[in-house]
Amino acid sequence: MHAEILLVLGLSLGQSAVYAIVSLTAKLTAEQRLGDQTVAMNTSASPRPWLDLTYQLLGIAFAIVPVLLAVHLLRRDHPTLSLGIDRRTPMQDLARGAALAALIGLPGLALVYVAGLLGINANLVPAALPDLWWAVPVLILAAAENAILEEVIVVGYLMTRLRDLAYRTPVIIAVSAALRGSYHLYQGFGAFVGNAVMGVVFALFFLRTKRVLPLILAHLLLDVFAFVGYTLLPKEWLSWV
């Protein structure tokens, strides 16, 4: 089962973590200090709008494939397992997701600001798509992709598999949180700390409720606010970032 975990992570966020570590190493060894560098997310993939849209949609769709694989593997061994990815309690899940988003998002903004002042984070541009009609819908889809991929793999799949292997609860929480922090290292050390803390909170929530959907909704709200908000807000409002 350890091999299965490594393969699933190697196809998804484990691979992202490796690239993030290499990216951070490159930034730390560059002439510019980390705090003076910029990291852009959701960038254009082609100067031709229709081809750019095609690449964006394909990237989002194929990123979900490891999620489907992880769910398939879990259900093969646990036929009744749902991970709480259902609509049994939609209003409760939405309320929990919104509460988690507020709990994580407000301190997260403060952490981003402080990390920028300390120079331990690169300057983050959450959205760098061209000003076209499909930019906002694609950013929302990208937020959904991130939310589904991260919460199903890092929380639902990984924590369930580690419990199958009889790891102790503190170890399971630490591994899940450390992985979440590690694939954000391309942004800097502040991003690692912030996301690792978020990972601890989300892991504790999952252990208590056995539901991933509220985590997906919370993550979706956070990313939509970051991606779409950055695109729509006047640039002078963002000058402090």
Automatic annotation (TrEMBL):
GO annotation terms (biological process): CAAX-box protein maturation
CAAX prenyl protease 2/Lysostaphin resistance protein A-like domain ranges (all copies): 133-224
Key words of the record: Membrane, Transmembrane, Transmembrane helix
TM region positions: 53-74, 94-120, 132-158, 165-183, 189-207, 212-233
Name the record gives this protein: Membrane protein
Gene Ontology MF annotations: endopeptidase activity
Keyword Cell membrane assigned: no
Pfam family, one: Rce1-like
